[in-house]
Amino acid sequence: MKTINVEIQNITDAQAIALEDMFRTWVGLGNIGASRWTSFYADGDGNFRPSIKVDGKDAEFSPLIDEKMRNKMWEEGEYIIDYDMLAWKLNNQNK
C-alpha cells in the first residue's frame, strides 16, 4: 500500500466542504466493503480554479492512460476513471 499527500489550494469554503465529505464517503465505502461511483462537479466556468500538488509536485496525467483510453473516460461529457483498469496495467507491466 502507498500513501500520497494531496494539497489543494485556491478553492472556496463550499468546495473544501464538498471534497472533504466525498473523501470521508470513500473511507466509509472502503470500511463497509461497498462499491459506488462518487463524483465532484468541477465548475471550471464558475469559480473552481484549484492548484493541486501530489507529494509536493504539480498533479500530472498518468502515462498509463493513452489518448484512446482518456477519450473513452470522457464519454458523455463526464470523466470516469476506474482504478482497477490501472491496476491491471500495472500488473501486466510487472510480469
Can you describe what's shown?
The protein is of the alpha+beta class. It has two domains: 1-60, no CATH class; 62-95, no CATH class. 40% of the residues lie in helices and 11% in strands. Strands 1-2-3 form a three-stranded antiparallel beta sheet, with no helix packed on it. β2 and β3 (57-58) form a beta hairpin. It is globular.
Indicate the topology.
Layout lengths: L5 E4 L3 H20 L18 E4 L2 E2 L8 H7 L9 H11 L2
How would you summarize this macromolecular structure in one to three sentences?
The protein is an alpha+beta fold and 95 residues long.
Which terms would index this structure?
95 residues, alpha+beta, 3 helices, 3 strands
Number of domains: 2
Q: What's the count of strands?
A: 3
Assign a percent range to the helix content. Answer: 40-55%
What is the topology, as strand order, of the major beta sheet?
Answer: 1-2-3
Radius of gyration: 15 Å
The number of distinct helices, counting runs of at least 4 residues, comes to 3
How would you state the average pLDDT, rounded? 95
Q: How big a fraction of the residues is strand?
A: 5-15%
- Stretches where pLDDT is under 50 for at least 5 consecutive residues are none
Please identify the structural class as seen in this structure: alpha+beta
How do the SSEs run, as a string of H and E?
EHEEHH
N-to-C CA distance: 19 Å
Largest sheet: 3 strands, antiparallel
Basic shape: globular
